[in-house]
Amino acid sequence: MELRHLRYFVAVAEERHFGRAAARLHVTQSTLSTQVQGLEREVGGPLFSRTSRRVDLTEAGELLLAEAQRTLTQADRALSVARQSISGEIGAVRIGFSGVAVLHGVLTADLHRFHQAHPRVELSLAELPPAAQVQGLRDGTIDIGYSPGLGLDCTDDLLVTRRAGTSLSIAMRHDHELAAAASVTTADLANRDLIVFATHEEEGTMLARLGPAPGKHRARVHLVSGTLGVLALAAAGAGVAVVPTATERITLPEITYRPMRDGGGPDVVTLSRPDELSGPVRTFIASQTSTAR
């Protein structure tokens, strides 16, 4: 028995007439009669009592009608759900992100725009360092990443899309000697204790730019994975923290920010799989305003 057999049976049962049912289904009356007879052979008895004037359901036909209608409704719903998933209207999108993407506004703008257009898609977020986002995309635990674009271990298996440029600032305890300056330079940080984000290759690149003066050594470098941890150490006076300028949106009474005059920061990028199959994820990616590279 196939779904079309049930559709033919239901049409006849609802119309109580083979001719009207055939017209409704856009098939010939002989084809419809043949299919109904085949269904009756399969169930082992008559489903209709036929006279020259009308078609009535037998007791077995009445019972089958209720079940067939439920089955067809569920089948139509299953097809609709699959179509909506492919078109990106329902389903889920799992996002990994670094704090800078939130502070810069890139992630929040994307989430708002997508949720307004596709409110039935479930959005789940996890704050992850860049290396964990790359791994998550490869092993399938996340669908999209929002990350600083420096030092990412991405080969051709991932698509990196530039979303925004950033600048750098220094976060320090309010009574630090550099707090009196209007701005700072890389040279001002030479031989000072530093607090930087621990993002694998990025930390080495940053330290190379902010390295000690020739012949001297910095007292200490703190490598911290999260924005709040970086600011907590800076507020404790453990050093000066190199942060994206967007971090200045976080106000703490112990913290003072100063811009770096020569401190261009890493881009904010999104990471995705180029061969993505999920409809909701493809729709989310398509909704972003970005420049791919």
TrEMBL record:
Domain HTH lysR-type: 1-58
Keyword Secreted: no
Tree of life domain: Bacteria
Pfam families named in the record: HTH_1, LysR_substrate
Keywords: DNA-binding, Transcription, Transcription regulation
Name of this chain's protein: HTH lysR-type domain-containing protein
GO molecular function: DNA binding; DNA-binding transcription factor activity
Keyword Ubl conjugation recorded: no
GO cellular component, one term: protein-DNA complex
Annotated family: Belongs to the LysR transcriptional regulatory family.
